[in-house]
Amino acid sequence: MSDIISAPEHEAQQVGGSARLLRRIALRLGAAVFVLWGTITVTFLVLAVLPGDRATILLNITSGQVIERTPAELAPINAQYGFDKPIAEQYLHYLSRLLHADLGFSFELQRPVSHIIAEQLLPTFTLAIAALLLAWLIAIPWTLLTAGRHRRLGALGAAVETIMAGLPPYWIGILLLIVFAIDLRWFPVVGGASLWGTVLPAFTLAIPLAGFIGHAIRGEFESRLQQPFVLSARARGMSLAGVRLRHVLRHALIPAITLSGWAIGNLLSGAVLVEAVFARPGLGNVLVNAVSNKDFALVSGIVILISFLYIVINLVVDLISLIIDPRLRGRS
């Protein structure tokens, strides 16, 4: 009789769990869309209120002469690009173009923004992935060496991670460039996208990230060391190093893997700044030149793309976490 009664209850629980999962997914999707819309709106408003007449800037860029323009010269440009329309109408037209994957046209380079970004995205993405892998290679050995051991050693490990996480990438990049490229000459000052030239930029991004990842691993690692399965494994004759490496570390990596989703998006935006420091090809140099030349379409295109990738990557990680860990589905 109890089986007959419990079967419908079990089915109801499954239906309820699926409904909660779908509700949480819908909320995450809605939040992602809202954040993206907010980013697009802020980007448009910032570029719209910047000092300087956009039609004048466009004419000066295309002609190569920085001079005052007459109203007769500006009128056709304003009409062609809609600069003379109300700001609300310009905004709606801007949104409409983005919905059709039209990022606009670069005034300075005289090419579609999407084509320019497509050419420069690969070096930036390669640098971000290299930095992520390097950060893991730094964080895991450091955690294994210092976590769950003597109190002073653990405190030292945590302190180093905190310092690493707080270092500004821009400062790290300049320091590495001066020491290892200019003084020691171990690496090229301007290495382009070559493997050797990627080392210093990758370390620049990896050092702060290794601090965050190491801190995430350390907390879970030390917690797992107190679990009963550690004593069971030791009782079966497994060495402490084997327990730490094969059992404890495997469980401790889960929070850091989740953190990596945020890290990829953060590295993409950080790579833009680091590329400018090391004069690497990629979105960084393109963005710096676009800002200095007031190429509004190219600036907004790069900002929106980086924001979009950041939001999508974090959304995917959130959804995977919801599917894997049922405990997250009931959290508000």
3D structure, described in words:
- 79% of the residues lie in helices and 1% in strands.
- With 332 residues, it is mainly α.
- It folds into 2 domains: 10-111, no CATH class; 116-329, Orthogonal Bundle (MetI-like fold).
- A two-stranded antiparallel ribbon has the order 1-2.
- Strand 1 (105-106) and strand 2 (111-112) form a beta hairpin.
- It is elongated.
- The model is unreliable at 1-5 (pLDDT under 50).
Key traits:
332 residues, MetI-like fold, 2 domains, two-stranded antiparallel ribbon, mainly alpha
In a nutshell, what does this entry contain?
The protein contains twelve helices and two strands, in the order ααααββαααααααα. The chain is mostly helical and 332 residues long.
- Taken in chain order, the helices and strands follow as HHHHEEHHHHHHHH
- Separate helix tally: 12
Main-sheet strand order equals 1-2
The quaternary structure here is: single chain
CATH class of the largest domain, please? Mainly Alpha
Query: How many strands, which pairing sense, and closed or not: the largest β-sheet?
Result: 2 strands, antiparallel
The strand count comes to 2
The amount of beta strand, in percent, is under 5%
